[in-house]
Each structure stands twice: as structure tokens, then as C-alpha cells.
Amino acid sequence: MWDADNSTPRRPHWRGDFTISWSDPDGWHTFEEARSAAQKRDSWGIGYVTAVDNDRAPDGCYGVIDIDGAVDENDRPKDWVPSLSPFVDRDAFAEWSPSHQEDGADSGLHIPLKNLEKPGWWTDQHFSDDDHEGVEVLTNKFVTVTGDTMKGSGDSIPETGEWVDAWLREAYKAITGDDPTGGDSDRGRSSSDYDGDEYLTEDDICDALMHIDPDVSYPLWRDVGFALADFFGDGDAEVALRLFKNWSKGGAKWDYDADEQAKRIVLEATEGGGRTIGTVIHHARNGGWAMPAPPHPADGSNAPQHPVYTVLDGDKGNVNLHLIPESGTDVAVEVHQNGQRVYKAVKDRGFWSNSTVRGNIAGDVAGKITGVDQEALRQGVKDALTDAALDDGSDDFETSLRTDLVRDIRRRTEAVVSFPTEADGTEYKVTLAADPNSPLPGEQTMTFDTGDITNQNPAALETAYLDAFQRMIKPDSAEWDNVKNYWVDNVDVRDREYDMQTESAVEGFESKVRNAKIWANGEWGGFDWGSWNGYHEPAFGSDQEDVVYIPGQVIAEWKRKDFPDVSLSHTLVERGILASVPVSRQVDPDGPRRMVWPIVADGIPAVEENALHYVDPEARPAEDGDDDGDERPEGLRDR
Q: Among 357, 375, 400, where does a domain finish?
């Protein structure tokens, strides 16, 4: 039940007892019982628990699409709300939320559906933090029942199908301006194979989780659980669950339902739900985590990543031969006795295939170790190098001989996307996770052309990496060959039309902003949430950047009409035009918080002098002959 006279009317209760838990089936009642109880007080109404995702309600089969702020005070649908025709065509029941009875208030709409499942890409979306306008998919929630049906409402509850996913996709695009199925920084990007991550310990993973906000979106929260289940496997599922729950408890969203859901995610995951520990590594690095280096123990107590072969194993002590990558072209041959190095030589890779070189190395080693059978020692070295020759060409052997630089770049590769160019070439965009030794935080994207990829000269990688991370690396030609082959093998090829559409969207966005009026110096009175204009914020985010806020709903409506299939916000962030993805902000101190796109103040070159119109007279540039004009605020500048 719910109480219209309560300060929080949608808070569930039973006959005035607000201590009940709506998620506990033991506290549920029949419709007849609820209707009878509601008649005791005029302000009481009945409610329904959508339990399709409630593990404690195996018979639950209904969910509800909740459209907050769907219509204005005159019951006219908001422009952003996708057409309700798919529901009307199926004779769907639809009723108003309690806000419909409030004078001058926008109204929400509830549409129940059978077997409602959230698409994997879906997260509840709102235009602002106050949740008064947006769409939620309720599959495990208490929902008020008003009986106040929408005009034209049907009397059936349709079965969920692909048509619901299509409607939700349009709603998501209308609110955020992005296509959720087109990819974003989390979903559209490969989590990478993060080869060689097996050395990470439970403590390492626990530390990584501490660098990820547990109050992330549901899809990412779920993917972290899948990744932990995949990494620890069935044998250590309880470890994965413990880490997942301990991390989740640090967030504000943790409750009984989250606990039950966490168990299902980890214990019933099939092959990690398609997610690997690379998901955790990627987001932890974005949060500032420094991934520990792979171990290279001298005593052999843990298996090193490079190839190790047994030469002698007897009373005189263990003798092992190590092949350690020095560069892309050179390998160090080391022989250790009881964990202590007694011999080292640097050779060209592939030397092990030459029998003469194998014999020479065996003779050199024999002169370094005493107290053992010299003939057995020489033969043991030859046999070890012969085994290396036999292993050469296998995937495991190639992996074990990668240099630290190659391992690091492959492990940090997040996305490789290629576009055909007008010159019949190809442009490659490679995104790498954050470099802990770089002065720049976060992931960065490098661009290469066909000539760079086909050229054996590693200068292209040196230059691109320096530009992206402000740090110098010195790969050799063999390392460059390994890295680029890995990229080409994992490239996501996109056609020319897709690229042109993105470029058109970016150009159209820049044009809109160039001609927008910008309010500054606290003069927010003329700022309009419903038109193309901006508000100057001189200290945005932790970096205190100069930005201009553009209303998110205006951009979303423009983008939905002209560029519905372009994931624009992340492209603009990548190009340095947006300081971040859209965020919720308050311009008028007494006004609402709504979504804005924070444009870097000098992120869009002006096409002509004073192309941006700084409306505040205190902020306008001085005109010719005007000695009193103040300069515009720092950061609002042309270039």
C-alpha cells in the first residue's frame, strides 16, 4: 500500500506500518486484502511488486515501464517521449502515476508488461538527478497502482518482445543523445584479452576493485561480477563472490536484493558471461590503479613468464636454462645453478635452430660450472636448446618471449578501429588504457594510417605514443611488428559511410555551438534550457577546466532528428571538444539540475572573430572605439 498524504507518498506500508520490506514475499498480500485495507482511509492506495527479477518470487512474471514526466500539466506528451503507438497497437493498459493528481505537476505513466527483461545495454535514464523526467524499467520494485488510466488505454498486459527493446532504445537515445547499441566507453569497447594476467593474486584483484566506484551503472556492476567469476573459475567461485560482495557493500545501492543478485551473477555465470578480468583491469586503471608488474623471480619459486628448460636435476643441484627477451630481436641465454646465474650471453632470436651455435653455447657453459659431470652438462644444454627449437612457432613460446613493452601495450589495448579513407587507404584509431608513468590521466587514442602500419620503422609508434601520453618509448622494429600485427588481428572495421556520418555530426555540432549565445559572469537569467545557448563555467571538474554548458535535451532532440545512429558524446570527448560525457548540473542556483554537455571553452575553433556571442555586457570583448568594454572571461577564447 501507499499513502497520498505521506511526505513520501510512494513509500510502501501495510495498514500504516512503514517498517515492512516490499521485497520480502512474506509481507505480500492478495489483491482482495489490499483493496479491503485501502478502503480504511481515503489517502491509502494499493501497490504492486514487480517481481520478474526477484529470486524469492519464482512465480513473478510482470514488470513495468515507468515514464517519469511523460506529459506536461495539460497532459500533452513531452517532445522527447518516443511514440506510444507500439503499446496502443497492442491494447496495452497504461495508467498515470500519483503525480497526475497534483496541480501544475508533470505526470508519469506506468505500463505493465509480461516477462519484462531489461536489455543488456539498458540503464535507467533521467534528464536530471532529481529523477523527475526519464524512463525506468521496473522488474524488482514496488509500484503504486492508481487506477487513473490514460485516455486510450487498453485493458491487456502484452507479452514483452523485441518491440519493447526497440522502444527503450529510442527512449535512451532521446534522453542521452547516444545510441546504447552503438557502443560507448564501457560497452562498445573490447575488454581486451589482457594476456599474461594470470599472475594477478587475490590481493591484486581486491586492490583493483578499490579503484572502481561500486555505485556504477547496473550493466558495469554485473560485468564486474562476471569478470571475477571468469577469473577465479568454478573452483574458487566463493572467492569471486566474496570479493564482489565486499566491493559492492562500499556503495549506496547495496541492499538485500543486491546481495541475492550478486550470488546469482557469480555462482550462475556461464564462462564469465562473456566478460574477462580485463573489464576490472580497464576500469581500475581508469580509477588510478597501477597494475603490478609480472614476477621475474631469480630462484624459480614461481614460474617465470619466459621459457625455462631443465639442464641437470641431481645431487649436485638443479641447473636450468632461461631464454629471456632483451628486445624484439635479441634474447639473453642464462644458465642458473640452484637459482644463481652462472652464465649469460645475448644472441639473436632464433639462434636455437642452429646446431653449431647450440654446441658452442654448451661448451661455454661447461667451463662455468664445476663439480658436475661435464659431458652430461654439455648434453643437457644442447637438449634444452633443441627443445626450444622444437617449441619455436607455438603460441605459448611466442607469448613467453614477448618483451615487457609488447606485453604492456597489448595488455592496455582497449579498442582498434579502422576506417577507409578517400585516398583508398585506411585510418586506424587505437585506444590504450592509462599509462601509470604518464603525466596524463586516463586512456588515450592514437591515430595511424596505412603507411604507418605497413612500415617496419617503429618511429610511427614512438611519435603517436609521445603525442598521446607525453612519454617516450623506444620500440624496435620487431616489437613494432608484434604490436601492429596484434592490432590488425583485432581491428574493428567500420565502413566509410559510418565515418562520414560521424564527421557530419561533429561538424554540425560545432556549427551549432559557434552560433550559440554564451552567458557568463553569473548572468544566468537569460539562459534557456530549451534552446541552443550556453553558460560559462570557469572551474569544471577536478581539473578546474573552462567549459561552456550546452543544454543536453536540446542536443538530444537535434541528434535524434539528424544523427540518430552516431555515438556523439564519446567522439567529442575523444577529440577534446567535450571535457567529459554529459553530466547533471544546476545553472540557476534555485533551479533544477539537468543534463548538460560541458564543452571545453577553446575546444571548437571559431570560424570568424567573435563567432561566439558573449551576451553578458560585462563579459563581451571591447569593440573598436569602446574603451570601456571588458575582456571576456579567461577561457572563452577563439583560436
A: 400
